[in-house]
Amino acid sequence: MSTESTEGFKPVEATHIRLGVVGAGYVGLTTGACFAHLGHHVVCGDIDQRKVNMLNGGRIPIVEKGLERLVNENRALGRIEFVLGSAAAAVEADIVFLCVPTPQDEDGSADLSYLQQAAREIAPVLKPGAVVVNKSTVPVGSTIAVENVLQRNDVFVVSNPEFLREGTAVSDFLKPDRVVVGAANRAAAEQVAALYASIDTAIIVTDPVSAETIKYAANGFLAMKISFVNAVAAMCEHVGADVGAVVDGIGSDTRIGMRFLNPGPGWGGSCFPKDSRALVKIADDYGYDFSMMRGAITVNDEQRRRMVEKIAKAVGRHQSDLSGVTVGALGLTFKAGTDDLRESPAIAIITELLELGAGVRAFDPTTSGELSPHQETLLAGVELVSEPMEIGDGVDVVCVFTEWPEFAQIDLDSLAKRVGKGTTIVDTRNLLDPDQVKNAGLRYDGVGRR
Ligand code: UDX
Ligand code: UDX
Question: Strand order in 359-363's β-sheet?
Answer without folding.
Answer: 382-384, 359-363, 326-330, 397-400, 424-427, 443-445
